[in-house]
Amino acid sequence: GENVEQHPSTLSVQEGDSAVIKCTYSDSASNYFPWYKQELGKRPQLIIDIRSNVGEKKDQRIAVTLNKTAKHFSLHITETQPEDSAVYFCAASNNDKLIFGTGTRLQVFP
Amino acid sequence: DSGVTQTPKHLITATGQRVTLRCSPRSGDLSVYWYQQSLDQGLQFLIQYYNGEERAKGNILERFSAQQFPDLHSELNLSSLELGDSALYFCASSPNTYTYEQYFGPGTRLTVT
Fold it and tell me: Hey, of B54, B96, B100, B109, which one would you mutate to test binding to chain A, going by the most A CBs within 10 A of its CB?
């Protein structure tokens, strides 16, 4: 069935460093790949997304890259700040439901 | 604030009971999705409704059911509750089935004792 693998499960970085989270999807028909940030006890918040006809998208300190051939996509956060600390989820979609990865707990130490 | 509302915020109930969770989508959104988030399972898609009709089904148990009403709000009914049903239940909405962005509500935390 449809599956999204996400790595690493935890990531600790120093403030100002970069963080990279990687996801691999199984359904080749997937055409939409969002990233959500979830703080403890709160709702997932959409932070950036990419469609299958685009290879890279950037929004200030956040960028996402997509490799359709390899069926993987990545989230890059540059100049990390303590407020970036949260759980990040990738997801893949084929026009309807989102299939989520298992999440990455990012800790940014000042 | 995403514009999606969910009630109640917290629910504590006993095994074997039945509960109803409510979701109101963002104004103008026709599509509603339900997700379950438990500690060991991550975010799992349950079911999607579009303009009152069931559109897609995920790993939803037979004890669970949902519907979307003419005013587009949706309810998720959970019956014969078990301890393992304790989780955060989120709904999300999007304008239609072809607009991919989904915006999540604040969730309902269900605790089954």
Answer: B100
Using the 8-state DSSP alphabet, how is residue B85 labeled? G
Handedness of CA B22, B2, A43, B29 (dihedral sign): positive
Task: Give residue-wise pLDDT tens across range B7-34.
Answer: 999 999 999 999 999 999 999 899 999 9
Q: What is the pLDDT of residues B38-91, one digit of tens each?
A: 976 689 999 999 999 999 899 899 999 999 999 999 999 999 999 999 999 999
Q: Which two tokens stand for residue A43?
A: 């709702």
Do A43 and B106 lie within an 8 Å CB cutoff? yes
The torsion region of residue B3 among left (phi > 0), alpha (psi -120 to 50) and beta comes to left
Chain A nearest CA to B79, separation (Å): 23
